[in-house]
Structures are given as structure tokens and as C-alpha cells.
Amino acid sequence: MKKFAKSQTVIQLIEQLAPKHFAYEGDPIGLQVGSYQKEVKKILVTLDVLEAVVDEAIEHGVDMIVAHHPLIFRPIKKIDTSTSYGRMIQKLLIHDITVYAAHTNLDIANGGVNDLMAEALELENVEVLIPTQSAVLKKLVVFVPASHEQLVRKALGDAGAGFIGAYSHCSFSSKGEGRFLPTNQANPYIGEVGKLEVVEEVRIETILPESMEKQVIRAMLEAHPYEEVAYDLYTLDQKGEMFGLGRLGTLNKEMTLQSFAHLVKQSFDVEGVRVVGDLQAPVKKVAVLGGDGNKYMAKAKMRGADVYVTGDLYYHIAHDAQAIGLHCVDPGHNVEKVMKKGLMHYLKQELTKRKYETDVILSTVKTDPFQFQ
Questions:
Q1: Nearest C-alpha neighbor of 309 from the set 322, 296, 328, 336
Q2: pLDDT over 90 at 328, yes or no
Q3: Are 339 and 112 in contact (CB under 8 A)?
Q4: Closest to 273 measured CA to CA, from 245, 308, 221, 226
Q5: Residue 143 and residue 152: Cα distance in Å, rounded?
Q6: Mean pLDDT to the nearest integer, 78-100
Q7: How many other β-carbons are positioned within 10 Å of the β-carbon of residue 108?
Q8: Where residue 166 falls among pLDDT bands split at 50, 70, 90?
């Protein structure tokens, strides 16, 4: 019998990649239409939810649409089914299709929109352009019988605990004695009911980001032999990995702005780009920011970028960029479509890992409203 994920499981996987607390305040991310308990046999990943995308989902028997741009961005006052928007909602409800949106949280996440943009341009030495927050770190301390020390330590590391810089599976151990007296209600792995037991135990200490707490604790409990596991969890003052909008990196080799503009056009599969600056000027350091990045133009210059790649550049912002000597390439807001393949591959991998047979497909509908003539 085939095993399919519930929509709640799919959402948990997405929020494991792009936690909800990454999102900007007021951004309407999350479940938009449907149920958390929907059995999902097929997922459609899209940038935008338009009527043509919903029709595509119906045609392909899709149970859940995962989008970057929210379908419901403002409170709905009425559902007029004579309009395209109203028909969309009507069709989603009739065909029982769940819709979920990951917006600014997916922009900020590692492996999200901006990392995918940097990857498409093959940027090197990539770092966050505009830091917004750092990961909360926690220390986990667990007491394990010496016989299971290696098993539990490996489970913790494999689940994501113990990452420090470029090192994984980092931990510390100290030996000691554990004491416990099983009551009549106990089913002890070691010892006897009513008799005080003294066991050689190991204290294992490791660190983990708060976002991975549930999966690390679950892995620890599964690997631990005791019926009741003794462990402590502390929030640390140290700050973890920095997260934020945009990315800053360098090209493998210097090129002219004109050549770079062609690279952007080719890498993002767009019909054309708008360029600000001297086409023969050399560029090497690149800032990228998916969507509308107008208000971060000066920040890109301050961080030393030669060229800034973002969408929806305003006329006067382009003048400001010229004035401070920052070159710009605008491939349009729709360039965020790079998230489709990235999110599809991530979901396929995570669902397969959990032995779900839920299928994940890409929307082929062109949602960019602009054309070049």
C-alpha cells in the first residue's frame, strides 16, 4: 500500500528549510486554502498562484500547491466568482486543493531564493547581503549508559546537532555514575523494580540551532535505550549563523557589465534585462536580491558590490545608482522562479527519505506578465 504525506507533513518540511520566524512582520505566509490533514499524492511548485496555475493543478490531479508569492496577500472582503480571483478560490475549494505560501522566509533561508540566484550565477565566497537575524543556539546535555554512547552521539550528529563552522558531529563527553530506583510502574532497560541501580553513564554535551530542536530530540530519544531519558536543554547567549536578505559574492573571473548582463539573461532564462551603467565597465563583485530590491541599493554599494542584480528597479533609484557608481541589472521580479526547481528537489529528497510516495512537479505556466517586443 502506497504511503502519502499529509499536507501538515509537507508544511513541516518546508518550514524546516524556511522557518516561519524568518518571515517579515505582516507577511501572510503559511496555509492559505485547504486543510492540514489533506492526503497529498501530488504537489505542484509555482512562483505565483494564478487562475491558469490552478487549472494546471486540476488537470494534473494535484492535491497541494506550494507557492512563493501568497495567493491571499490582503484580507478578503468578498469572493466574486465572476472574477478570475474569485474563480480561483472556487476551483481550489471544489477540487479540494490546498495552497501554502513560503515568501520572505524562503528569501532569507539558506538554500532559498537568494542562494539559488547566487548559485545560478556561479558566485563564489557567498555571504548574506543584509543581515536580519542570527540563529538561536541551544546546548543539549544527555546522560547515556556507556554501552550506547557511540550510538546516541552518532544519532545526534546525523540529526543536525554539533555543527560548529565547517565541522559536524561536535560533542564533549565525561564519565560518571547514574542512579535510579525503578518503581512498580517501570519497565527498566537496566536494573530491577524496587532495587536502587548504579550504572556507569556518559554525559554527552552538544549544541544545536533552535530550529532543529524537535528533530534532534526525536533522534536522541529513538537511539537512547532508557524508558525515561534524562536530558537538559539550555538556551545559549552565543549567536549562531547569520541569516538575511540578498547575497554577496564574486564572479570566477572579471567581465564587462555587458557580458555580465548576458550571463544574467542566460542564467535566469529571461527574455531581456534592464541595465544601468557603462556597458564596458569591469565587474567582479556581485550583489543579488530576489524580488523588489530598490530600498537596498545603497547597501549593495556600501558592501562593495560592482553590480546589483534585483527586480523592479524604479526610475529614480536607477538615477541614484548611477550617481554613486553602482551598476545594476534588472531581470524582473519573475526571476524568483529559480525557487521552483530548488524547492522541488528539496521536497522530493525529504519525502523520499521518509518513504513517502508523494510526487512533486513544477508548474510550466508562464506567470511573468511582461513581454519584450
A1: 328
A2: yes
A3: yes
A4: 308
A5: 10
A6: 97
A7: 26
A8: confident
